[in-house]
Amino acid sequence: MTSQLDSLTSIANHIVRGDYDLTIFLLTKSLTTLRADVVRRMGEECSSRVEVSSKDMFEIHFAAAESSDFRNQGRIPIFGQPLVVRCALGVIVPPETLSFVAMYNLALAYQLKYYHEEIQKVSNLQKAANLYKYSQEVACSQRVKISAIHLFTLVTNMASAQEAIWGKEEGRLCLDHALSVYMFMKFGCEEKDISQSLQYFLWSVLPLLFPEPLIAPAA
């Protein structure tokens, strides 16, 4: 998995540089291999009943970016930093984790590509929304260890894509989910580790999470 890990880290840099077509090509190719690795690993674990421990040996992070960390496109902003996996030398990262990272970054590449095209193709946003949803399902079903802030940016980016495609009501459903994740961060003490760039992103999203105040009729 070392070569796959190095490859995904390198591809994340293409997203930061705005090379979306190259990113999509490389990540699509990587996912084909990773899916086969996931299936093979599941078969090995079922036959041997040996559970591979990866306790705190690797972590998912946002890639560092010199430019702005998010792009405010439309009502719901997009967090534009791709994900990377950091680990100690020699640590084997499970293919499930690498698949999640690859799918998230592929969704982000399609989403950002849409806003940088002269002729915007809604199909790119549809692919992004579907990939965000599928990456979330993979994280849950395969028990991929992700933090609340990663889930928050995933759901918010998905809300932005869904609203652009289907309208405000579809985006609202995802924002409701994002609100529950935010409340977990706030009261689950995860917020203390959020970087300044993520704090800016949270503050740009927060007004959208809460229902609009009711205006009392004039007397």
Could you characterize what this model shows?
The chain is mainly α. It has one domain: Hyaluronidase domain-like, CATH 1.10.3450. The chain is 64% helix and 6% strand. It contains 7 helices and 4 strands; from the N terminus they run H-H-E-E-E-E-H-H-H-H-H. It has helices spanning 2-17, 20-48, 95-116, 122-141, 148-166, 168-187, 196-209, and strands at residues 58-62, 70-71, 78-79, 83-87. The protein has a two-stranded antiparallel ribbon with strand order 1-4. Helix 2 packs antiparallel against helix 3 (95-116) and helix 3 (95-116) runs antiparallel to helix 4 (122-141).
Helical segment tally?
7
Terminal-residue CA separation: 68 Å
Please give the CATH architecture: Orthogonal Bundle
What's the total count of β strands? Answer: 4
Helix content: 55-70%
What do we call the CATH topology? Hyaluronidase domain-like
Sheet with the most strands?
2 strands, antiparallel
Q: Structural class of the helices, strands and pairings?
A: mainly alpha
Q: Average pLDDT, to the nearest integer? A: 82
Weakly predicted, low-confidence segments = 47-54
The domain tally reads: 1
Structural shape: globular
Going across the biggest sheet, name each strand in turn.
Answer: 1-4
Report the β-strand fraction as a percent range.
5-15%
The SSE order reads HHEEEEHHHHH
The top level CATH class name: Mainly Alpha
Rg, rounded, reads: 18 Å
